[in-house]
Amino acid sequence: MKKFVPVKPSIYGENRESLLTALKRGGHPAFRADQILSWLYKKRVRDWNEMSNIPKSLREWLAEQWTLLPLERILCKNSSDVTDKMLFALEDHSLIETVLIRAPQIGVGQEKARHTVCVSIQVGCAYGCRFCASGLAGFKRNLSTAEVIAQLIQICHLEDEQTVRADKDYPSFDNIVFMGMGEPLANFDTLVRALEILNADWGFGFGARRITVSTSGLAPQIRQLADEAVPVRLAISLHGATDEVREQIMPINRKYPLAELLPAARYFTEQNKRMITLEFILIEDLNDSLEQAAALAEIARDLHAHVNCIPYNTVQGLPWKRPSMKRQEAFVRVLRKRGVSVTIRREKGHDIEAACGQLRLQTEKERGTLVSVE
Ligand code: SAH
Ligand code: SF4
Question: Which of 65, 80, 105 is the last residue of a domain?
């Protein structure tokens, strides 16, 4: 695998332990670690010199060791009133996307917008699902932990710019979903370290139950994730309720067919003691039959899983279509009738939410820098 080695690493890749080790090596006192981490995650500084309680000599030393943000915001597309889609350039000029979704949520006697950040974990994706823009663009490289964390810092910066918030100490978003570009479980170590930084009190302090990792179904890594310290939520991109249908659109199904994937999903549920979600994109004449709905209901009941149906978002250059509303509803009815907990994505902005990878694909095409097209 092609590995990008930056000239200087970013400090957002360090955890508390590695920062302590580095400070010790540099002859600096240990108590500085928590001060530095507070500047990074609570105050979210944009410059080393903003770290006002850190002596100048240490600030200079920090700047010699690390860069602050390893990515640059190059485009922020406000496609609807509920989503901001950001395109970032990495140090090697690769492009990645991050999406902020503001879904209205009605509380008791009040209306509150629930903010979800959708992060990327790879540049492109190697899994080549036939319906997906990220897969279409091919795989370039894994992101580093710092590049994952920096996406969230950038979202905080964006929100800090847009609103005057008194509670700047806390991230303004409510959920983080690893549903952007790439396959999170194929960049496992980066994912686990990023989860630690997101969850830790010295980091974002973000609750594990508010983090969702979405996978196309890497069975062994699902088991591994179940054993990890940060008990995140899991979503599995099923998209086919039988091997025959799944195989047509998801090459991964040949490596891990349902007979391997479903027991791994069960293991995760048992370890995690939380319902997992089965994502099911509805694609016309491919997986939207009532037989598929019945088979999906069977799987969901067996796993005690929630089903999230997502009407397909058309991707330029791909033949797939979204079924009619009537057909979508008939599909969902079959699941409901069989007692399955099911939602269908209807909120505004869905056009952008589920289609991570498209903005990058479009920009790479315009620049003529697309890595490969299957
Ligand atoms: N690689 C992981 C996470 C990134 S994809 C995975 O496959 O789960 C996040 C979700 O978006 C997946 O459920 C994926 O199947 C879905 N998706 C991809 N392209 C889509 C499209 N054009 N319309 C709707 N959903 C799409
Ligand atoms: Fe990769 Fe997920 Fe897209 Fe499949 S759906 S190509 S695994 S990003």
Answer: 65
